[in-house]
């Protein structure tokens, strides 16, 4: 029989003469339960936000992106394309030109990001049909180039997709030599009719205009240069393996980036925030365990007679310390267990019903995203156990010194 556990359980469940010790123990459990629930909710929110960012970025960004390691563009020829396409796992290679341009529609103006894409862009399935809120998901109609504009751009410029009376005018400033006074040589200008409006997430919706590659070549004067190549891998292929093979084939002149590496700074910030939240969790659990410390101190004083009797029956100081450390662990385990249970229940309800809204218009998610991980539950429980062991050592050592005939 586990004597320390048996005695600690009796102390926890039995009625004591001094009722305020019971009250302190209950307060300790409640405090630990509330903190445990709050911490697991916060950690799950960070997990949910991470998944949401991946979902948002993956809906618009390529699975693998190839960029120049120096400069913003690079020459693309048949040799380079053949080298990329020959890598095992590569399904599609989309040529891309991206640059800022000045947009004008009727009397409204805005600086936009023009993204020119080759004809196989639609096969990448990066703009789902349900994200088209107006018009059609096409980049060419009757052999003529068409544009897909973000919902924010459409709102700023008051674009009417169903009317062909006005065209979307795009201007691109050239790099001109000093001494040139001809305004027409300082920029290029082309018109294009909008075909549809997409709504994915605010960052993209407010900035992007997607056009055919040949249109972007003429507008932005890129000729055979591209800002990136966007790769779609074969179903079932390991993206990391394909990424490594591409980097090996292309060499140090190119950067090959997977989905997370394309937004490395953003994900790094999110990970740092979760780390700081974890550190704050430890501090909160330490504060919450102070009640356990006082509860054990009061219990040790109250049980002087019991301690003396146990010592007379042969209990050594180590056994007496283990009794009170076990008492502290029981209080922490019950409080943490209750907190994690109700925290998990709240998270399940949020996942199912989305009671707490993000407070923003998004076609991706309405309710605040949460994701429960077993590792987070284990983390909270483990931290509480370690903190309780540390906080219980002093009351346990004090209790072991109360074995005296004077306490009988």
TrEMBL record:
Pfam families: FtsX, MacB_PCD. The chain crosses the membrane at residues 20-46, 275-296, 328-350, 370-391. Its main location: membrane. It comes from the Bacteria. Belongs to the ABC-4 integral membrane protein family. LolC/E subfamily. Keywords: Cell membrane, Lipoprotein, Membrane, Transmembrane, Transmembrane helix. Residues 25-247 form the MacB-like periplasmic core domain. It is a multi-pass membrane protein. One of its GO terms (cellular component) is plasma membrane protein complex. It comes from Chryseolinea serpens. This is Lipoprotein-releasing system permease protein. The lineage of its organism: Bacteria, Pseudomonadati, Bacteroidota, Cytophagia, Cytophagales. It is found in: Cell membrane. The keyword Glycosyltransferase does not apply. Residues 279-392 form the ABC3 transporter permease C-terminal domain. GO terms for biological process: lipoprotein localization to outer membrane. The keyword Transferase does not apply.
